[in-house]
Amino acid sequence: MRRILVTGAATRTGGRIIQHLERIPDTEVFAVDDLDPVERFSSHFERLDIDQLSFARYLLDLKPHTVVHLQTVDRSALHGANRAHEETTVGAQALFGAIGRCTTVRHVVVKSDGAVYGAGPRSPSVVTVESKLERSGGRYQRDLEQMEMFVRETAERHAHVDYTILRLAPIFGPTIRNPISAYLTLPGVPTLLGFDPRLQLISERDALSVFLHAIDHPAPGTFNIAGRGQLYLSRILRLGRRVPQPLPKRAFHAALRGLAGTGIAVPKHTVSLLKHGRVMDTTGMTSILGFLPEFTCRQTTMVAYERVPAERLL
Amino acid sequence: MPPDNDGGVRAGTGGATALTRETLTAMTKAELLNYARAVGLPGRSKMSKAQLIDALTIEAANETTLPDESADAMLPIPGISREDRLEARVRRAGLYDRLSRFVDQNRRCGWRTIEGHGCGLPNLSGSDACVLHSGRDHYDVAVPATGRLGFDTWPTLFRHLHLATYDVDPIGLDPVIHEMAWHVMNGFYFDYFRVDVEGIEHVPIDGPAMLVANHGGAALPYDAAMLSLAVLNTSARPRRVRVSATEIFNMLPWVSHMYRKVGAVYASRDDARHILEHGGLLGVFPEGESGFMKPVWQAYHVQRFGRGGFVHLAEATGAPIVPVAILGAEEVHPAVAVSKRLAQLIRMVFPQQRVEEVAVFLNPIPLPVRWHIRFLPPVMPQHPNTEPDPLSMLERSEEIRRSVQNALDAQLAARGTAFS
Fold first, then answer.
1. Nearest CB to A230: which of B162, B170, B271?
2. With contact defined as beta carbons under 8 Å apart, do A55 and A49 qualify?
3. Mean per-residue pLDDT, B163-170
4. Which residues share a beta bridge with A189?
5. What's the angle, vertex CA A142, arms to CA A141 and CA A145, rounded to 5?
6. Are residues A229 and B114, on separate chains, in Cβ contact within 8 Å?
C-alpha cells in the first residue's frame, strides 16, 4: 500500500489531484490543509496548520512514501502577508524537517511558481532554471526561494529523498479561480499603458496531469512548466474578446486595488508580471521530466475563455 | 469578369503586357488602379474610372513608356535629388522582385486556427505552408507573408495580427509587425539615407553569427534599423538581425514591447546566447551608450568595445564575428554638446538607469546623410567552446575595434561630403 500525503488540499488543483490519486489501486491518500477543501474527495482530510509542530508529528506518525507539497500558493489576500509568509517558509521548514527524519519518504513533488524568477527590466527574455533571480516580486518571491532552498537542503542531507520542483506558469482555465484567471476574464481588463508583457500559461488540465506525471515518474530536479508558445497580453485579451483598458501606472494600481474589493486580489508578484512579463525555458520539462502539455498557450486561452470546447482539441 | 483572374495582373508581373480596351472596361476600379501602379501611370490616384481606362489604353499602345518617367508622381523630399529618387525606385523594384520569388502565388496555405479561421496566404516556394505557419524558420528568415511589401498588404497583415493566427518567438518577435516596420523603414533605407552596402557576402547565409558595429545616432538608433535592413534587403537569404538593446528599452512605455516585436532582443548574456544557440544573427553595438552619445567632433572615433563580453560569447558559442563599419549614423543628428544635467533629469525619471551623459543636438529632423555600410571579413572563434582569459578577450575586442575604425577611415577618405 503506497501512502501519499498531499498538502494544500483546499486548492482546486490539490482537490482534483486527490480525486485522481484516489482512483489508483493500492494507493492511500491523506490530505492536509488549514482551510476547508473546495473540491469533494473521499480521502482522509486533516485540518492542520502546516507551520505547527503538530503537523510535523502527524507526518512522522503517518510515514508516507510520497509527499506532494501544494500549499505554496500565495494566500496573503486571505490570511494577510505575515501569516502567508509564515505558512510558506515555516511550513516548508516543518514539512521538510519532518521528511528528513521520516525515512519512508522516497519522493517529494513540490509546486513552486514562475514568480520565483521575479519579473523586471533586467530579467532575461527567456529565463532558464539556472538564470540569476531578479528580486522584484516582493515577499512571495523570497518565500518561494526559501521554500525551494529547504527542499534542496533536505535532499542533499538525506539520501533517501528525491525531489521534483515544478515552477508553474499561471494556471488558466474555465473553472479555476486564481487571481490571474479572474483578472483575465474580467469584461474590461485594466492593463498598464504602454506595456504589453509576454506571458506563458498552463491549462488547468495540464497543471493537474503534470503533478500526476511527476508522482508516477520521479525525475529529480527543478522544472519550468508551461504550455508551448507564448502570448502577449494584448493577444490573450483579443483571443478572449476582452477589451483592454490601458491605464497609467497610478490608475492601474488603483484599479487593481479596487478589484481587491470585489474579491479579485491580484498579488504583487503578478502586478510586476503584468508589466514586464516572463517566458520560461521549458526544454527540461519535455526532455528530462518527459511531460508534454496537451494544450499550447493559445489553445489554453481559447479553452479558458470558452470559445472552443476542450474536448474538441484532444 | 476580368480575363486574368489568377493574380497575373494584380501581382504586377503581367503589367507590361498590353490589354485591350474591352478588357480594361471589364475591370473594377481597384483592379485598374493596381494595373496602373504596375505600369507606373502618373497621376493615377486622382483619375476617375473612365480616365483610367483612357490613360491605360494609351499607355498600352505606347509600350516604350518606362516606369522611371513617372517620377513626377513622387513627393519631393528636401535634400534628395531626383536622380537618387529614381535610383531608389529601381533598387526597391529589384528587392521586390527578389522577394516575390520566395513565395508561390498559385498555391495557398490551408492552415486553420482552432476556432476555424483560414489562413489563405501564399505558400513558401517548395513548401506546403505560408511563412507564418511553416514552422520555426520564420524567426530567422524574413519573407513577406504575402510575398510583397506595401501598404496594400496591410489589411491582410492586420487580419492575421488581430486573429493571432501565428506564434510569436520566445523573445517576442512578431513576424507581422516586423514586416510592417520593414516596409516603413525601407523609405528611410532607399529614399532618404540611400544606404549603400558592401561586402554582404561576409554575412553567413546560415547558422549563428555576430555582427559587431560602431554605434551612433544621438536621438534614435537609426543604425540598428539600417543594419537590419542592409541584411534583409541585400543578402541572398533575407535573415533577421536580432539587435541587442539596453535595459532602458524595457522601462519605456510602448518601446518596451515594440522593440521586441520588431525583432530586437534585450542585451543580456542569456538573450544573446539564446539567439546564437538557435542559429540566429545577433547584432551588437559594443560601444554602447558612449558611442551613441558621441559629440560631432568625435564622430567615427570608435570608442572602446566595453569589456569585450561579445568575444566571450562568440567563443563560447562558436559563432563567427562579422565586424561592420556603418558610415552615416553618427552625422544624422550631430551632437553639439554632451550634457550631464539632462542625464540627471533622465535618472530622476528612470532611477534604475545609469545614464551619465546625454547628447544635445539641434535638428529635430534627421539630416539626409548618404550611408555606407561595409561588412568586413568574419573573425572565426579561436578556441571554440572554451573560456578565454580576460586579457585575450580585451585584445581581440580591440583588434575588432581597430578593423572597424580602419574601414571607417578608408570610407571617410574616399567619400566627398556626407550628403553626396
1. B170
2. yes
3. 92
4. A244
5. 90
6. no
